[in-house]
């Protein structure tokens, strides 16, 4: 079954999604050269329902952060729309967003560069509140409560970022993101810079906060294992296009797209038998590695690496089709061996 024209890459679980991205195209640069090069994001659509986490995965350079930046207004889209609870914010300036859009916030990867070292934690936390009109004691009380909600003492408002570890700084960044009570949070690799045990603590904290507050997350990660922990659905991105999307277990356990097979077999899993099965599936496909080979401008972007590629793959961009539980953009998805 082919997804209907304009269909989302994911089931809409609510009449008004918390976040809706439609036909997003992002080109970096300007002028003729920019128009000749492939866009960083090429026609991406997905929804996130209230309270839902969607994991966005793909290898480095696939465009994950570009989607996050377009959603946040940090990179203007070439075309397409971004809506938060139905409100079209695609062309809203950062200044307008900071005053009018309390519902959308972000946590970045690097806890060292994302906090201003010259400001106390309290100053960092009250700033977004002031922009939304909450000032004085009320703002400082909210800042203290925000720190407590991420497992830090309220009196940490008087300290500076340098007095905290990486994991603690990431908790502070989460407190800053949540202090205005947003409903949608973009998490761009929020645990990638942390050691493994701190990663687990921060992921657990994010899951608890999401469940307590009914938050929606766009959760960006390289690692499918991390995505599986936090997400209900996942979107697999390659060269700025969605290759596959569906329930996270279905996509990671029963991928229908050759690229997802490559990605899942590369991600370490704790069970050796499962890991061996994945490696065997990847070898059976004879998968190439990420290379500089140019993607086909008209067809599937995975052609240069795909062992199943035929002429039609180079000629026609495969639409997303429902195969079992997943929407898959592959002409030959039925030939992909089961993991
Ligand atoms: N500011 C920029 N100017 C020009 N090209 C850019 C810019 N930022 C990203 N790109 C290009 O856009 C593409 C997508 O980059 P992006 O950072 O979104 O990927 P990513 O999936 O987040 O990668 P990573 O996993 O390494 O963070 C890449 O080809 C990258 O080189
Ligand atoms: S459409 Fe063709 S090239 Fe693309 S992933 Fe499927 S088989 Fe491979
Ligand atoms: Mg990135």
UniProtKB/TrEMBL annotation:
GO terms for biological process: peptide transport; transmembrane transport. SUPFAM superfamilies: P-loop containing nucleoside triphosphate hydrolases. Keywords: ATP-binding, Nucleotide-binding, Transport. Residues 19-264 form the ABC transporter domain. It comes from the Bacteria. PROSITE patterns: ABC_TRANSPORTER_1, ABC_TRANSPORTER_2. SMART domains: AAA (SM00382). One of its GO terms (molecular function) is ATP hydrolysis activity. Belongs to the ABC transporter superfamily. NCBIfam families: oligo_HPY. This is ABC transporter ATP-binding protein.
């Amino acid at each position: 079954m082919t997804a209907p024209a304009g269909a989302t890459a994911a089931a809409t679980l609510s009449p008004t999604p918390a976040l809706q991205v439609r036909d997003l195209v992002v080109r970096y640069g300007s002028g003729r050269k920019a128009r000749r090069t492939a866009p960083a994001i090429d026609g991406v659509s997905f929804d996130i329902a209230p309270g839902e986490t969607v994991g966005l995965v793909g290898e480095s350079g696939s465009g994950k952060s570009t989607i996050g930046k377009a959603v946040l207004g940090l990179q203007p889209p070439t075309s397409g729309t971004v809506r938060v609870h139905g409100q079209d914010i695609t062309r809203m300036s950062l200044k307008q967003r900071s005053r009018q859009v309390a519902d959308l916030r972000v946590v970045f990867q690097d806890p060292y560069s994302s906090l201003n070292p010259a400001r106390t934690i309290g100053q960092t936390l009250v700033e977004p509140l002031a922009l939304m009109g909450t000032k004085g004691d009320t703002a400082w009380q909210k800042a203290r409560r925000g720190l407590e909600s991420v497992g830090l003492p309220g009196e940490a408002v008087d300290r500076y970022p340098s007095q905290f570890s990486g994991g603690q700084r990431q908790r502070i960044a989460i407190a800053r993101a949540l202090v205005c009570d947003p409903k949608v949070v973009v998490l761009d690799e929020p645990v990638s810079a942390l050691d493994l045990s701190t990663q687990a603590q921060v992921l657990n904290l994010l899951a608890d906060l999401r469940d307590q507050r009914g938050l929606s997350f766009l959760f960006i990660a390289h690692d499918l294992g991390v995505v599986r922990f936090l997400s209900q659905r996942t979107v697999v991105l390659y060269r700025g296009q969605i290759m596959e999307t569906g329930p996270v277990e279905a996509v990671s356990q029963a991928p229908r797209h050759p690229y997802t097979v490559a990605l899942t077999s590369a991600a370490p899993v704790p069970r050796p038998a499962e890991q061996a099965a994945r490696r065997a599936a990847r070898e059976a496909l004879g998968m190439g590695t990420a290379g500089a080979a140019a993607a086909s401008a008209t067809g599937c972007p995975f052609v240069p690496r795909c062992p199943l590629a035929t002429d039609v793959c180079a000629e026609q961009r495969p639409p997303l089709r429902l195969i079992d539980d997943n929407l898959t953009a592959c002409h030959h998805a039925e030939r992909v061996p089961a993991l």
